[in-house]
Amino acid sequence: MNRFVLAVSHAIARVTETALGPYQSAMIRIGFSATWLLFLLRELPHRQELYGPDGPWNWNLAEQLISTNGAFTTLMWSNGQLWFETVYALAVLSSLLLLLGWHTRAMSVLFMVGVLSLQNRSVFMGDGGDNVLHLMSLYLVLTRCGQVWSLDERRARRTREARARGEHVVDRVGPALWGVLGLVLVSATLLGRLDGDRVVPALLWVVWPAQALWWAVGRFGRSGQSRIMLDVIGNIVHNGALFVIMAEACLIYATAGWYKIQGSRWQDGTAVYYPLHLESFSPWPALADLLSANGLMVMLVTYGTVAVQVAFPFTLFNRRVKNVLLAAMITEHAVIAVVLGLPFFSLAMIAADSVFLPTSFLRRLGDTAVRVRALLLTWLRSRLRTRSVGADTPDPRPPKQRSPKEPGRENPENPDPAHVGFPA
């Protein structure tokens, strides 16, 4: 009984004292923001057809559907072209800034707004990866995903170093960003733009004053008790959101696996063969033919896919088995991206899988990225230095002496004398 009580108390202390999984949450942030950013850039020439007010799913059709389901989307606040371009540009910008980790809490909120606005505007333009991205954008708002591998982490480290030297550091960008976003939130609420959906406005109205309270306590708090209390609450919310993300990923794989078991094509081991020969999912027909030519391999991949998806949630308590199945699933999604031409779906699923990656592997990955970046910067600097030295070094060869012009020759380099007057 005492061991059980000690284990429970240790677990409670760990959940409340620490924001668990800093590297995993950073991978989720980077993965989903990169997926959405690449998708928006890829569809930039087709944005009008996908989400524009005059696209196939026009503004009137979207208004009828949203009036029924009450989905949140800022694109329905106006049917003007300028408003659509502004929302699309802000979605791209917020994805890039979240990827870099610049004011991650505010950018995660803008990222969520951008994802929901575009996806709910045209619900028929997407695949399974969009559903994953839709859910994870909500959970990201509640996580502390900028603890590592972010500009926020670098700014916090520099702030601590400056304060250790006795310098006074004031953050002016954060309060200004909070004020602008708060003005937009208050205006949208007063104008009735948030009357449909209840979850997203409630989340926005919780996060906005919470950020103000966090900043005020950190700036004007006399004792450290208030900040400790806010840290405890933030850690609990972060760890809860991280647990929900893990549960969501397990539910996706378990549901997909158990549904596959009920299909006759999955039972006889031929299900993988058919999508390889669909015209819509065959960017490389020769590669698809090569993979489907071996019946034994098709059967093994079919049964292996079902086995991995069904078994994965039960292997979380065994690290070695979990890591093996995790590598198999990431490899499977990479193959799907290439063979079936579904890169963004695969990127979204790999980003969701990254929450289960071991911390030691992620640290080594981060160290490798730092070394590669240092080598690239060193190479670039050496190239620039070589070019600048070459441009500043004078030519060692003596200047070419030009001979004086001879009479009757206008151009000394031309051996033929110049004609004067009319030709004979």
Query: Which structural class matches the secondary elements?
Result: mainly alpha
Uncertain spans:
406-424
The helical percent reads 55-70%
The main sheet comes to: none
- How far apart are the termini? 125 Å
Percentage of residues in strands: under 5%
Computed over alpha carbons, the radius of gyration is 30 Å
The overall pLDDT average reads 88
**Could you give the count of β-strands?**
0
Number of contiguous helices: 17
Offer a few descriptive terms.
424 residues, disordered C terminus, mainly alpha, single chain, 17 helices, 0% strand
Quick rundown:
The chain has 17 helices and no strands. It is an all-alpha fold and 424 residues long. The protein is globular, with a radius of gyration of 30 Å.
Describe what you observe in this structure.
It is a single chain. This protein is mainly α and 424 residues long. The chain has a domain at 17-155 and 173-245. Helices cover 68% and strands 0% of the residues. It contains 17 helices and no strands. α2 (22-42) packs antiparallel against α5 (81-100), α2 packs antiparallel against α16 and α9 (173-190) runs antiparallel to α10 (199-220). The protein is globular. It starts with a helix and ends in a 32-residue tail after the last helix.
